[in-house]
């Protein structure tokens, strides 16, 4: 069970800027939740607080039944994929995907099985010996997703993961992320400022503005489509 509960979450940065204000949000298990809103409205800050990469100033954050306010990122069973996917350039695709698992002392055979499975799902099984520079943008993005999947996270956080891709690839990857969500059956929280992405991918959309939540609803209601 990986339901997320955000209760009265605030983020005040060290310079005094109040970036997230009294955010109350329930994200259901296996939901595909989109955080949408203009640049600077607090989407990334919210995502980073869920991941534990940013301390919350006040409020309560729960993952499943656990209060995680003081739980380190590595103990949260969460994976995060960014727009600049930061693969290790000197490592093969296989080693990029294996790296975190080796650090966690997962047995080699298990690592092998997980990579094999993820690579098939993402259609990168022919690319495992390549280096990142020998891949296209879309392939690199898939490797970044693969590296997250093999960790078997309960929650997948994505911060504008498609924004560096060209329009055609972006459309293709949207469809792939929807398929991935269906296959993995995990909770997705996806940040974008792209209305089309929000409309086509999310089961629900959370609209933020100036650090507050304006509305949480299904795509049709938000965008007024019949
Ligand atoms: P979004 O993801 O919606 O574009 P962010 O969450 O990145 O917005 O940022 C929200 C606001 O907080 C912005 O005004 C940003 O400038 C500010 N901000 C982000 N990081 C910091 C920081 N470390 N210190 C001070 N202000 C910050
Ligand atoms: P280690 O690096 O700990 O010796 P292994 O013995 O499992 O790990 O594999 C040796 C290297 O062979 C790996 O680091 C990886 O670069 C490569 N490798 C292993 N399995 C595959 C595979 N299925 N596809 C591509 N490369 C692989």
TrEMBL record:
Keywords linked to the UniProt accession: ATP-binding, Nucleotide-binding, Sugar transport, Transport
Molecular-function annotations in GO: ATP binding
Top-level taxon of origin: Bacteria
ABC transporter domain: residues covered: 4-226
Signal peptide segment: none
Protein known as: Multiple sugar transport system ATP-binding protein
Species classification: Bacteria, Bacillati, Bacillota, Clostridia, Eubacteriales
Residue window of the full protein shown: 1 to 226 of 364
């Amino acid at each position: 069970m990986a339901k997320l509960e955000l209760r009265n979450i605030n983020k005040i940065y060290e310079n005094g800027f109040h970036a997230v204000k009294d955010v109350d949000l329930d994200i259901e298990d296996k939901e595909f939740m989109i955080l949408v809103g203009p640049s600077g409205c607090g989407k990334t800050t919210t995502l980073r607080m869920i991941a534990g990469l940013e301390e919350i100033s006040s409020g309560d954050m729960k993952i499943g039944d656990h209060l995680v306010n003081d739980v380190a990122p590595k103990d949260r069973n969460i994976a995060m994929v960014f727009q600049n996917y930061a693969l290790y350039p000197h490592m093969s695709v296989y080693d990029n995907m294996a790296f975190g698992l080796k650090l966690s002392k997962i047995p080699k055979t298990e690592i092998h099985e997980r990579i094999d499975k993820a690579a098939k799902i993402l259609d990168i099984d022919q690319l495992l010996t390549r280096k990142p520079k020998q891949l296209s943008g879309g392939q690199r993005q898939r490797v970044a997703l693969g590296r997250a999947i093999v960790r078997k996270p309960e929650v997948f956080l994505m911060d504008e993961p498609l924004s560096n891709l060209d329009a055609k690839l972006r459309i293709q990857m949207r469809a792939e992320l929807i398929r991935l969500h269906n296959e993995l059956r995990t909770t997705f929280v996806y940040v974008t400022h792209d209305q089309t992405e929000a409309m086509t991918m999310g089961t629900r959309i959370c609209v933020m503005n100036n650090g507050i939540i304006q509305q949480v609803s299904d795509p049709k209601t938000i965008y007024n489509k019949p």
